[in-house]
Design brief:
Shape: rod-shaped
Radius of gyration: 41 Å
Order of helices and strands: HHHHHEHEEHEHEHHEE
CATH superfamily of the largest domain: Histidine kinase-like ATPase, C-terminal domain
CATH architecture of the largest domain: 2-Layer Sandwich
Oligomer: single chain
Structural class: alpha+beta
CATH class of the largest domain: Alpha Beta
Number of domains: 3
Length: about 400
């Protein structure tokens, strides 16, 4: 039996009070059988409790109280009529009790059915949501597999001309009359061609990208190559590219080539989104790591300190809606025009940063611009090199 609520106790108290009042009236006017019909009231009140035991006790008490009126002295020849009248009252009380309990039990069944239906509907909605998510995940997996096959095929065909281009670039650097500025530009081109060749080799050697091989590096050494590579494109479009790297930052745990790819992708997105006369800022800093950041970082970097390195890329571009910003890291999602982007850049970038024990997040506001925040494990002191330096 479930515990009675405050409402149930209040109803039971009112029913008991009504019963006592009617019983007292019956004691003072036993010949007036009409008063016995008042027992209907406590019975109807008790039916709202939907408790068969209490209802049986109440009905029994009302029946006994009704017939107790026969114990009072009556006029000669009226006893038989009193028995008949009070039996009619008892019949009415029993009928009211039966109809009341039947009505309340039906209401209880209907309420239980509604609750069960609501629960079942909620379960179906959850199952449908999970099914849709699983279907989306399957579609993304199939598309990623198809893209992987396509990339492997394209990489195989592109490899040969890239080697030819690299040879001609090296020959160009050896031409007489080449200025130092031209040699610097040629060196950048040669470095990037070498990087592309390595990426192609990774794609051809495995169905999965090469896992990062991080080491403790100065932050400037990680950021500057990407900024130098992208600076001409920003200059040509008339966008100011600013770099702010404090001198006293801790070392950062990074695979130089992988983080270079991430920064180039982020800067390319900022370049595409920022109009002429806009600004793009690369800011580096450090802060105390959160417990989650420490747990992630120390899984891959045993010497991690209590700090993380933060690298922010802020632009004054068109920005994006909150809904688009939440989906920015999903594979194949892009806000660019058809043919202008694959929607894989930020997805692969975050995968790479997470493999470093870091995180990649994005905030944006339409008309105000976008900020991409990267965190990586940091080390306060100089590392002890265990590998032979090349």
């Amino acid at each position: 039996m479930t515990a009675m609520t405050h409402r149930d106790r209040l109803v039971l108290g009112i029913a008991a009070a009504c019963f006592l009042i009617i019983l007292i009236i019956e004691e003072f006017a036993p010949a007036n059988v009409v008063g016995a019909y008042g027992y209907v009231l406590p019975i109807m009140l008790v039916t709202t409790l939907r408790n068969r035991t209490i209802m049986l006790v109440t009905v029994l008490a009302c029946v006994v109280a009704t017939y107790s009126g026969l114990l009072q002295p009556t006029k000669p020849g009226r006893f038989q009529a009193a028995v008949i009248n009070r039996s009619v009252v008892v019949g009415v009380l029993l009928l009211v009790a039966y109809l009341g309990m039947s009505w309340e039990e039906r209401k209880a069944r209907e309420e239980a059915a509604r609750v069960a239906l609501a629960q079942e509907t909620e379960n179906l909605l959850k199952a449908n949501t999970q099914l849709v998510q699983a279907k989306d995940q399957l579609n993304r997996s199939e598309r990623l597999a198809a893209v992987g096959q396509l990339v492997a095929s394209v990489a195989h065909e592109v490899g040969t001309p890239l080697h030819s281009i690299a040879w001609h670039v090296q020959a160009l650097a050896e031409e007489p009359g080449t200025t130092p500025e031209m040699r610097r530009r040629v060196a950048i081109i040669d470095d990037q061609l070498t990087r592309v060749v390595r990426i192609i080799q990774d794609l051809l050697s495995s169905t999965r990208p090469r896992q990062p091989e991080p080491q403790w590096l100065p932050v400037e050494e990680v950021i500057s190559p990407a900024a130098v590579l992208m600076e001409p494109a920003f200059h040509e479009k008339g966008i100011a590219l600013t770099i702010d790297i404090p001198k006293d930052l801790p070392l950062v745990w990074a695979d130089k080539e992988k983080i270079h790819q991430v920064l180039v992708n982020i800067l390319a997105n900022a370049l595409a989104a920022t109009p002429t006369q806009g600004n793009v800022i690369i800011m580096a800093g450090s802060r105390e790591a959160s417990p989650d950041e420490l747990d992630r970082g120390r899984l891959v970097a045993n010497s991690m300190s209590l700090l993380v390195i933060t690298i922010e890329v802020q632009d004054t571009g068109c920005g994006m809606s909150e809904e688009d910003a939440q989906k920015a890291f999903e594979p194949f999602f892009t806000t660019k025009a058809v043919g202008k982007g694959t929607g894989l850049g930020l997805f692969l970038s975050r995968e790479s940063v997470v493999a470093h024990g870091g995180s990649l997040a994005l905030t944006s506001e339409i008309g105000r611009g976008t900020t991409v925040m990267m965190t990586l494990p940091a080390m306060q002191r100089e590392p002890i090199h265990t590998r032979e330096e090349a």
